[in-house]
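ERR on first pass: missing label on line 2. Operator R.T. fixed the label and resubmitted. Corrected input:
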Amino acid sequence: MPFPILRTPFVVLSEIISILEPSEIVTASFCSKNVNRLLKRHYQQRKPLEWKLVLDYHCWGEVYIITKQQPDDLRKNQRKPVLLIRHISQARHESEHKLIETNEYKRGFTSKLPVLYFEDQVMGSKMIVDYASDLFNLDIYGLVIDRDCIWAIDWINNRQEKMLVYFNFMKNKCNCNGDEAMDNVLRKALASDYIILKDIVSDTYRFDGKLGPAGLLFIESYGHWVTLDNLINFDFIEIMIDESRLSVSDLNSFLRHWRAGGLPRLAFLALKCKTSTIFENFDEDLQAVETDEVVQYRLSYGKKLVFRNGYSIQRMDGVKATIKGYIGFFLMAVWHERAVDSA
Amino acid sequence: MSSTEQGTSSAAPAEPTTAPESAAAPEVPESFYYVHGKDKVVHKVSAGALQHSALIHGMISNLGYTEEQAKANPFPFENIDGDILQMVVDWCNQHKGKPTPPEDTNLPKQKEKLFDLVLAVNYLEIKELLTYCCKQVAMMVKGKSPEEIREIWMIPTDAEDEAAEKEAKKRAGKEAAGETAAAAGDAK
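pass 2 clean. output:
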């Protein structure tokens, strides 16, 4: 039974729009120019501040909205795709509905989502970002790319006043080293809160620039390039490095630098090595004191980590930290007032 | 089930659909009010049930009617069809004094009446019922393509919108011309 939605009062229409899922809003926006204008007007008046718009360019491209952050895992948030792009060659056999042709693209509908088919992936990506950003009146919050899409960092940072909040540099499909791309990426302003790096670099790759300021740096794999010099020049609140090749001696030097006032914003550090390095032999001058206190650190994205029987270490200005070494693993939580949380 | 009776406002309505009061109910006797829709069928509804409607609740608070006055002066809702008002009254009675659960199985299901129900509920300012009705409307388009949504929600195409706009402009132009001619005639 049809329902003449455009004949309902404004209050009712707004209530219905507020119930719809982000993907349903985007789908409905393609019904007519009139509906598109109406939805835009709705979001101009009621900006959906809790929604975060992300462009994922990895594997062709989609715009998705994060409606709620999963507290346990930075990578597993409630990701709701709203608009996809695909190559024009896929259009005929992929779309479950009749294709609608415009001057710029063909529009189909598959897996309950609108899909725009383009010849040019870059043009398509720009168009879906503009479309969703304009519809919801939202800036782009996050960017997920691989090395084929580095242009998007500058493009997004130029199209909006607000800096990207979330940046995820994915592993390239070719499985080959991307030293130049990684260097290029690291020298850009990137994002304000979360920087996640997953791409492959060669054994000899080194970075001689500065990284940060930002909230969190997560080198999810291939963190072997991070030297002591890099680490003491990073400006982050939380740092997590997988496949680190830092030695016990590097770590002691780092802690010495921290005690002297280096990395004043640092609240959390996690190093994971491929080797069985034992991060437990702290130099005496660091005055690390064994403690049986059980303390808990909550990462900025919600995950909680419990420290049992670590070492307490104090900076010259009085700020304390708990450090804990394992085989191939080192953790440090700095107890700035904000971060203190008893287990 | 419902307390309805065909006739004028002076007709004595039957007892309401509400469940009998429990032993723990307040001692003060409950007051009743009377409403009718386009069909003039009068519904006797308790003040408790009517609290769901911000509009009626506001009217009651302002009037301070006695039982007799209320019976003699049912609230007329001439813009609401009788069967729709019946649905609304039934819902208010079923939810007297309690909030609507997120999945309310006692809600009207007639899809063909949904539009009229939405208008009535919006007019009567019954927030919880309106939210439920809006959920029903939103559910209609789950997983549907733009073209399917256009049919379900009766959305004109761009071409239809343009044609309607042209037609409206043409009509407005004719009316303006007519008015000018009439004004010129008057001046003569």
